[in-house]
Amino acid sequence: MRKRGIFQFIAFILCLAAMAICLLWVELLSSQLIGQTEAELWQQGDMPYIQHSAFISEDRALDVSGVQMIHYSIDQALITESIEAENDTARLWIDAYSGETSMTAASGGKSVAVRTICTGGDFFTFNPIEMLGGWYYSDTDIMDDGVIIDKNLAWQLYGGFELSGMNIEINGYPCLIVGVADLPSSDILADAYGQEPTVYLPLSLCDRLGSAPNITYYSLVLPNPVKGFGEKIFTENCSLDEKEYELTENTARFSVLTNLKRVAETGKRTQRTTKIYFPWWENGARFAESWCTVLTVIAALFAIWPLICIIIIIVHTVLRRKLIIYKTKGYFDRIKNKKKKENHSVMEENNEKI
């Protein structure tokens, strides 16, 4: 019996350890991703924030003017709900958006076909890509001819990476290199990114080049005072049909509960019935989702034996407590009955004497 108890205790500890390893692995995988945790930085006092990302069908002609309409609609919806910024200069919510196309980058007589990611809003706040040098451009820059090229393109055109301030032609238009992006260090994101030379440039510059793609990625962080509020605000004001986009909640994307819920959606998530394009950072996140779901299920299986042990201990404790109470009550009942008998005997003796 003693050996059996030792074996059960060892199994209990090993299962807990395996469960912890799986959950830590999930945390490690999710921490390697970008564009998932912006809402945590916007938490203000008692007002929770939530991040949603919409991936829009390539057939849907959503452009910058369409995004501006979304801005206006969401601002009005928040005012209607009496949710306002702390002061006139504070921002109540932020967003980022992008589209992808193919262009040509050239310098010094060399020309390379490049993946072109056209960005708007606070794109690099949501997606802080790793940099080898320089920094991010912004929508608030006076000039919008600044671009970021990646390590692959820098090497092919210049043979080096210290390129901030140098010139480059995008589709024949002279631009300024403001930074060089490193390739993702995470294995998951590196696989999703691939080896294709890439350039990031503002959507306003793409418009001037006459090559602005439709916006296929839109992400925002906004107040979420009650569950589902943020999603409702977006879906009712995005001017998109539900069949034209796929919405993801980034805030709790890799929580244990979300990972377990995702098991039931596995078949549906593998089917593609729309022309929805996922950028490289989302492809990486979806790959991580698959692993996180599997690891969470394994952790849940390892949790079964410790849970059974805990239930058995609780049941035994409750039963033992009841038994102790029962025995204690019986002991006092016996004492009480004994006293009653003694009192009864004394009364009988007194009656006989009388």
3D architecture notes:
- This protein has twelve helices and ten strands.
- It is of the alpha+beta class and 354 residues long.
- It has a domain at 37-252.
- A hairpin with a 2-residue loop joins strand 6 (167-170) and strand 7 (173-181).
- Helix 9 packs across helix 11 (280-302).
- It is elongated, with a radius of gyration of 32 Å.
Task: Show the helix and strand layout.
Blueprint: H1 2-31, H2 38-41, E1 49-56, H3 64-80, E2 94-107, E3 110-121, H4 123-126, E4 131-134, E5 146-150, H5 151-158, E6 167-170, E7 173-181, H6 187-193, E8 198-202, H7 203-209, E9 217-223, H8 229-237, E10 245-249, H9 256-263, H10 266-270, H11 280-302, H12 304-353
Parallel strand pairs: 3-8, 5-7
Antiparallel strand pairs: 1-9, 1-10, 2-3, 2-6, 2-9, 4-7, 5-8, 6-7
Helix pairs in contact: 1-11, 6-11, 9-11
Give a quick account of the main beta sheet: strands, pairing sense, barrel closure. 6 strands, mixed, barrel
Number of strands: 10
Determine the fraction of residues in helical runs and give it as a percent range.
40-55%
Order of helices and strands: HHEHEEHEEHEEHEHEHEHHHH
Q: Which of globular, elongated, flat, extended, rod-shaped describes the shape? A: elongated
Instruction: State the helix count.
Output: 12
Share of β-strand residues: 15-25%
| Uncertain parts | none
Give the mean pLDDT.
85
